[in-house]
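User: Predict structure, ligand phosphoenolpyruvate.
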Amino acid sequence: MIVAMNAGAAPEEIQAVIDKISEFGLRAVDLPGGERTAIGIASAIPPELRQTLTELLESMPGVDRVSQVSRAYKLASREFHPVSTVVTVKGVAIGGEEVVVAAGPCAIESREQLFEAAAAVRLHGGKILRGGAFKPRTSPYSFQGLGVDGLKLLKEAGEAFSLATVTEVMDSHDVDLVSAYADILQVGARNMQNYPLLTAIGDSCRPVVLKRGPSATIDEWLLAAEYVLSRGNPNVILCERGVHPLDREHTRYTLDLSAVPVVKHLSHLPVIVDPSHACGNWRYVAAMSKAAIAAGADGLLVEIHPDPGRALCDGAQSLKLDSFESLMQELRLIASAVGRPMPRE
Ligand code: PEP
Ligand code: MN
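Assistant: Predicted complex:
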C-alpha cells in the first residue's frame, strides 16, 4: 500500500500518517522520488484490515490518495521506489550513468594468476575485481576454491590495483568472514533462494550481487531481492546470468537479455549481466556483453584468465587478457551509443 501525500503536505501531516501506520503494527517507509512525499507500508497487511486502513488513511489531512502495490515484492518495486538505486562501493557507482565492468577469474588459483588478471582489469578500465574463493561446484571432486587463503589474495589484489572486489558467499555462517575481505558479496545462481543466506546478507548491510537462479522467474528473483531489502540492506545489484537452455549443445545457459529492460521497468535496483556463465564459451562472450550494454544493463561481470587452458574452473568461458582488452574498447563504443559513459581509468 502506498499513501501519496498532497504536494504541500505539512511535516506534521506526514508524521501523523507514519504514526497511524505504526499503530497498526505495520512498517512505514519513506518513498524517495517525485515532487511529493509518499509513504509505503512494507509489511503484509492482513486482508481484513485493508479496507478500513485505506479509508482511515484517505481521510487524514494532507493525504491525496492511497493505492495498492500490484506486485508481491514491495521494496524492490519501482512502484514503491520510483528513483533508480545507485549502489556505491569504494567510489564505484553501480546503477548510475556509467557502465561498470567487474572482471576476474572464476576461481582464485594463485597470487600470480589473480594479480595478472587484476592488472588487466585495472589497465583496461574495469572497476571491480571478481574471483571465487568458495566455489559452488557441481561435482564434489572438482576444485572447490582456496577458501580463506583466496579471500586474503583477493583483498591484497584489490588494494594493490585500487579495485573494489566481489566474491561469492555460499553459507549464511560465512557472511561475516567474507565481508571481512571483500567489498561486495555475491549470491550465486544456485543460492538465489537460500533464504537464510539472503537474510544474513540483509542483516549485514553489505552490497550484494544477487544472481538469478537458472530456473527462477523474474518475480522469484525480485522476491529474493526483497528478502535482502526487507532486512534493511538497500545495496542489492541484480545479475542476469542465463536461464536453463533449450539447447545445451552450443551454450551453457540461455542469456535472458529481455530480463534487463523488464527488471529495469519493474524495479529500481541496478542490473548487471554475466555473459560468461550464460554462454559457457568465450567465443560468444563479447557479443553478449555488447548486447547487454545496448539493452540497458548497468554493468557486466566477466570471467577472464591469464591462461584459460590451464584454469581450474570455467576456462572454456574465460577471456584471455588480450581479448578482454579488445572487448573493453568495443564496449566503450556501445556504451556511448546508448548515452552511457565508460571511463578509461
Ligand atoms: C560465479 O560467478 O563464479 C558462478 C559460480 O556463477 P553462477 O552462480 O552464476 O553459476
Ligand atoms: Mn565461473
